[in-house]
Amino acid sequence: MNENKTSINWYPGHMTKAKRKIQASLNLVDAVAEIVDARIPKSSRNPDLDEMLSRKPRIILLNKCDMANGVMTDSWINYYKNMGVTAIAVDCKSGKGLKSFIAQVRSLLNEKIEKAKSRGILNKSLRIMVVGIPNVGKSSFINRMSKEKKAKVEDRPGVTRGNQWFSIGQNVELLDTPGVLWPKFEDPEVGEKLAFCGAVKDQVVDIEGLASRLLRFLCENGYTGNLINRYKLNADTLSGNASGYDILKEIGKKRGMLLSKNEIDVERAAITVLDEFREAKLGKFTLDFPEK
User: What are the angstrom distances between the C-alpha of 107 and each of 146, 192, 220?
Assistant: First the structure.
């Protein structure tokens, strides 16, 4: 078990192919809808895609907003607004915040729409490319907007396949694309936050170490109360000297996760902590903060 920050790299061969496909499809679309995780708005933006898509108008959807700190989500929306980028808080599974999407797209592309009207094209089709990292909610977004279960959805990274078009009404079409991570996380914290939120497969990380670091991160950022309430821990257990691994073992003990000879099942405790964090059972957290 490694409780220190480690480099997390996950870049299967299909990622390169997906990136090329996105590049080749750019000429087919008018704008880009980039879906990010509202809990980690910075860490869940692919810097490679950011550069590739820079010449297209863009709208950012802060997905899973119901799992993030609402005040921080508002701060991120203002941050993007100051950069001249439209951002909206959404929850793609429930549909929260999505009613304004088409109106926002039409506003974003108003100049192009008016130019088409001047040429006699009154109902110009608007084509929007949907991009984002694996497991960020692209398929849930498309299914909700198209009101059909066409895009494959699974709660594991990397299951959306190929490029597909979906009509969502009012002459707007969405182009689905595969989720793409980037070859190497230069900042170890970025890879770590992606792993916390489930964007990187658990099979490629040390589960016990990851859960231990998450627990330490929460303690260091003022969330000890959430852990005390959820796991019935003593405040002393979360003192400054306690390691994340010690806290993890205490959680396993409190939950009765024992092996033979009363040995604590730390792996099971780690899986529980990560699952409950990702399901917002520990509370609503935002792990990235806008630059001032």
Answer: 20, 36, 42
> For residue 156, is pLDDT > 50?
no
The C-alpha angle with vertex 168 and arms to 62 and 67, in degrees rounded to 5, equals: 20
Work out whether strand 172-176 and strand 164-167 pair parallel, antiparallel, or are unpaired: antiparallel
Identify the pLDDT of residue 286. Answer: 95
Residue bearing tokens 């010449």: 55
Q: Would you say 130 and 59 are in contact if contact means Cβ atoms under 8 Å apart?
A: no
**Where is pLDDT greater, at 240 or 194?**
194
In angstroms, the Cα distances linking 255 to 1, 8, 15, 227, 250 are 21, 29, 39, 13, 9
Residues contacting 2, CB < 8 A, separation 6+: 206, 209
C-alpha span between 99 and 10 (Å, rounded): 35
Q: What is the mean pLDDT of residues 91-115?
A: 95
**Rounded CA gap, 142 and 134, in Å?**
14
> What's the distance, CA 51 to chain centroid?
19
CATH of 13-176 given 3.20.20.150, 3.40.50.300, 2.60.40.10, 2.60.120.10: 3.40.50.300
Domains of the chain, by residue range, sit at 13-176, 206-278
Residue 78 phi/psi, 5° resolution?
A: -65, -35
